[in-house]
């Protein structure tokens, strides 16, 4: 059921943003009053030092700034890099943002305004509206099952895309830059007043934006080899036979040998079985992709495969019911969350004998499609962080001015530089397709979601801008592609339902009242008990959700914490996706943050499924254990609450 009031907004920097030296030379005047009329020019700036044979693909593309224009009353438009992509986004109704405020036209800047990045010129290419394709001409198939002829065709297409000049918006460098600019903090909303980052992750924008993005990528590949039936192969990581990096991406030792190769992957995982619980600490030993014959080793292998299948089951079935749970919460152009404000208001309420709960922060909240397998596959594939990181070691300098070595797939700013990224997202898209078709999932019916639009370039020979709305992409066949029938007929995860944890205490129908843990609290290495969290009576037409607001974390490192229901704290670390008591996890793909610092967001989990599995549908309270798996620390400003949504 669509939930019009569910809202999500841009991640809120928790620390003050101070100007830092740009990684690129600047020619932009600092006078903001003259910003709208200043001369803009295109710049390609190398983001790092020596990068070997991949040098041409390591360009840091910087987007431009633009003044927002009205779209039918209460609206806001975000205009992106003219040679990459642009976006028009209708803002949410005032009631779903912050009471008493009107959402008016905003200023968006596609580079960090505190860094004085130069801005390229505005585009004069006319925009045309998307026209649905007349028929399905492309069938996407698993990358590990491609025949030799199709493998060569795929390599040829990506090779030709890599060979295009970087100024061509359909070049491989430019396509990678689209993701970089939209997904690593280069967009700013209203930099003069609010200075909010804008990102296509962390909300209901995630799935349709990425569908549009890889649609045009796929079309460009087909055009480059003169084959309009060419379909982007997908990484079939939801089936045991596909739970490893497909061989086609591993051949060769450089992009000259194989255009699908990327040297900035985690080499320890190149021939390993995928681990969809990879962010858990302590980390599971690496298991070879090929099934072992030794009985003990085979038992570990089968256990790892079952963990992966249960993860997909939770993502797609138990915990992904409804658009809010599966696709993420509504994007809101206004965020009411402030760490200091939350602290002060919580203390005042406690002093007055009231509940410490405050009004929703409307900060980040991902759906299961984004925060589960998608996030883990990114981190598992990306290069592991060395003990020290520098540009000379292959690090990419982000717009925070610091080198990042957990690249390419392991870092949002560089993910699009690995060809495997696009096949990964083809399978993420397939997960949405299966949810919408075979599983009967239905997207939001809110006009602000359906009419959200982005503009991408099409046709590498004579680039033109095409505007697409979310309502245009809800059915993949309108985009001229579908997925192979064979893989949809056999979904091994569909019946991989978790079972009760055998090592912990019994689930309780009711939990006795206890004193709650004190907040704020910091998660580092030890699990934290939050006993007797009240469960309200379920209201008709609504779902029970667990809400955790005020999550402060360092976005540049791996962060995760699990939520476990009614298990003793000493046992909770052993609970995972195979166990019914596992409710879900907070996690995010690492990214940079302007001038460093932390981000603050929120986390929601659908609870009806886990409560039903534990026989707790009528419980008045449950015990929650938070199990951290972080390389640093995660601070929680407010205790978990359970609500009807």
From TrEMBL:
<dbReference type="Pfam" id="PF12143">
    <property type="entry name" value="PPO1_KFDV"/>
</dbReference>
<feature type="domain" description="Ig-like">
    <location>
        <begin position="13"/>
        <end position="62"/>
    </location>
</feature>
<comment type="similarity">
    <text>Belongs to the tyrosinase family.</text>
</comment>
<dbReference type="Pfam" id="PF00264">
    <property type="entry name" value="Tyrosinase"/>
</dbReference>
<feature type="compositionally biased region" description="Basic residues">
    <location>
        <begin position="30"/>
        <end position="43"/>
    </location>
</feature>
<feature type="region of interest" description="Disordered">
    <location>
        <begin position="21"/>
        <end position="54"/>
    </location>
</feature>
<dbReference type="InterPro" id="IPR022740">
    <property type="entry name" value="Polyphenol_oxidase_C"/>
</dbReference>
<dbReference type="InterPro" id="IPR013788">
    <property type="entry name" value="Hemocyanin/hexamerin"/>
</dbReference>
<keyword id="KW-0560">Oxidoreductase</keyword>
<dbReference type="InterPro" id="IPR022739">
    <property type="entry name" value="Polyphenol_oxidase_cen"/>
</dbReference>
<feature type="region of interest" description="Disordered">
    <location>
        <begin position="343"/>
        <end position="370"/>
    </location>
</feature>
<dbReference type="Pfam" id="PF12142">
    <property type="entry name" value="PPO1_DWL"/>
</dbReference>
<protein>
    <recommendedName>
        <fullName>Ig-like domain-containing protein</fullName>
    </recommendedName>
</protein>
<keyword id="KW-0186">Copper</keyword>
<feature type="compositionally biased region" description="Low complexity">
    <location>
        <begin position="354"/>
        <end position="366"/>
    </location>
</feature>
<dbReference type="InterPro" id="IPR050316">
    <property type="entry name" value="Tyrosinase/Hemocyanin"/>
</dbReference>
<dbReference type="GO" id="GO:0046872">
    <property type="term" value="F:metal ion binding"/>
</dbReference>
<keyword id="KW-0479">Metal-binding</keyword>
<keyword id="KW-0883">Thioether bond</keyword>
<dbReference type="InterPro" id="IPR008922">
    <property type="entry name" value="Di-copper_centre_dom_sf"/>
</dbReference>
<dbReference type="InterPro" id="IPR007110">
    <property type="entry name" value="Ig-like_dom"/>
</dbReference>
<keyword id="KW-1015">Disulfide bond</keyword>
<dbReference type="InterPro" id="IPR002227">
    <property type="entry name" value="Tyrosinase_Cu-bd"/>
</dbReference>
<dbReference type="GO" id="GO:0004097">
    <property type="term" value="F:catechol oxidase activity"/>
</dbReference>
């Amino acid at each position: 059921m669509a939930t019009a009031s569910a809202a999500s907004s841009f991640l809120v920097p928790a620390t003050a943003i101070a100007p830092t030296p740009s990684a690129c030379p600047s020619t932009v005047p600092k006078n903001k009053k003259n910003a709208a009329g200043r001369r803009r020019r295109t710049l390609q700036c190398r983001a790092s030092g020596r990068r070997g044979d991949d040098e041409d693909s390591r360009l840091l593309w910087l987007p431009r700034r633009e003044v927002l224009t009205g779209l039918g009353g209460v609206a806001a438009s975000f205009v992106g890099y003219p040679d990459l992509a642009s976006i028009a986004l209708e803002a949410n109704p005032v009631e779903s943002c912050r009471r008493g405020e009107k959402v008016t036209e905003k200023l968006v800047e596609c580079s960090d305004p505190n860094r004085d990045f130069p801005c390229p010129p505005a585009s004069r290419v006319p925009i045309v509206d998307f026209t649905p394709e007349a028929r399905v001409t492309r069938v996407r198939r698993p990358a590990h099952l491609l025949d030799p002829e199709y493998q060569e065709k795929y390599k040829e297409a990506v090779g030709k895309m890599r060979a295009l000049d970087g100024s061509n918006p359909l070049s491989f460098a430019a396509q990678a830059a689209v993701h970089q600019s939209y997904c690593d903090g280069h967009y700013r909303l209203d930099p003069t007043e609010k200075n909010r980052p804008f990102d296509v992750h962390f909300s209901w924008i995630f799935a349709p934006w990425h569908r549009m993005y890889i649609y045009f990528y796929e079309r460009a590949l087909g055009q480059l080899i003169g084959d309009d039936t060419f379909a982007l192969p997908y990484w079939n990581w939801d089936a045991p036979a596909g739970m490893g990096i497909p061989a086609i991406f591993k051949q060769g030792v450089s992009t000259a040998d194989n255009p699908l190769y990327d040297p900035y992957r985690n080499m320890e995982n190149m021939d390993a079985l995928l681990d969809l619980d990879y962010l858990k600490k302590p980390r599971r030993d690496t298991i070879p992709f090929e099934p072992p014959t030794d009985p003990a080793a085979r038992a570990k292998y089968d256990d790892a495969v079952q963990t992966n299948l249960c993860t997909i089951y939770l993502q797609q079935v138990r915990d992904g019911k409804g658009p809010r749970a599966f696709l993420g919460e509504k994007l809101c152009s206004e965020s009411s969350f402030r760490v200091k404000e939350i602290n002060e208001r919580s203390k005042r309420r406690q002093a007055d004998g009231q509940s410490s709960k405050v009004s929703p922060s409307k900060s980040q909240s991902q759906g299961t499609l984004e925060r589960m397998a998608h996030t883990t596959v990114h981190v598992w594939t990306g290069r592991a962080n060395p003990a020290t990181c520098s540009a000379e070691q292959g690090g990419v300098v982000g717009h925070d001015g610091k080198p990042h070595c957990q690249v390419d797939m392991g870092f949002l700013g560089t993910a699009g530089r690995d060809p495997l990224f696009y096949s990964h997202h083809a399978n993420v898209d397939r997960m949405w397709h299966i949810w919408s078709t075979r599983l009967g999932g239905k997207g939001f019916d809110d006009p602000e979601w359906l009419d959200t639009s982005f503009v991408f370039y099409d046709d590498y020979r004579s680039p033109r801008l095409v505007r697409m709305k979310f309502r245009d992409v809800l059915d993949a066949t309108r985009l001229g592609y579908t997925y192979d029938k064979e893989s949809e007929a056999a979904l091994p995860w569909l019946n991989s339902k978790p079972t009760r944890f055998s090592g912990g205490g019994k689930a309780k129908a009711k939990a006795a009242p206890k004193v709650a843990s004190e907040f704020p609290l910091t998660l580092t290495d030890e699990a934290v008990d939050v006993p007797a969290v009240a469960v309200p009576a379920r209201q008709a037409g609504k779902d029970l959700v667990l809400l955790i607001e005020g999550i402060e974390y360092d976005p540049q490192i791996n962060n995760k914490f699990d939520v476990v229901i009614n298990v003793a704290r000493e046992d909770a670390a052993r609970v995972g996706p195979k166990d019914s008591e596992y409710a879900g996890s907070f996690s995010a793909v690492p990214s940079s943050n302007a001038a460093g610092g932390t981000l603050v967001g929120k986390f929601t989990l659908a609870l009806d499924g886990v409560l039903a599995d534990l026989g707790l549908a009528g419980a008045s309270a449950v015990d929650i254990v938070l199990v951290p798996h972080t390389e640093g620390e995660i601070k929680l400003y407010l205790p978990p609450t359970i609500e009807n949504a």
